[in-house]
Amino acid sequence: MEEILSKYKTTAEGDVKVWFKAASIHDFTENGGACVKYKDKQIAVFNYKRKNAWYACQNVCPHKMEMVLSRGMLGDYQGIPKIACPMHKKTFSLETGENLNGDLEAIATYPVKVEDDFVFIGFSE
Ligand code: FES
Asked: Is 85 in the pocket of ligand 1 (CB under 6 A)?
């Protein structure tokens, strides 16, 4: 289990070495998520239209190690954008990755930028 999670490391914008061109903005539903593959990682990318923001995080939920977070429900917890896992509703901050309704390990989050209608995700390697 740890082996899967060890692939995913929160990346600050200042640590980005590769801006991975993920897909056109039109490939993402509004207020929904999609899964993107980068190397051996599955990354959940969210078009949070209500907040006019994009977010990316690991697709694997640390609760039962299911690759499902891209199919979760977007929400807001006291101003913090969050994703609720579709399996058992554990919720995570899309800014810090913190588990907001439990004590699970934080999920990894990644910077996102949009240029010329394409979505880029930032990785440190
Ligand atoms: S697998 Fe995500 S909450 Fe259980």
From this structure: yes
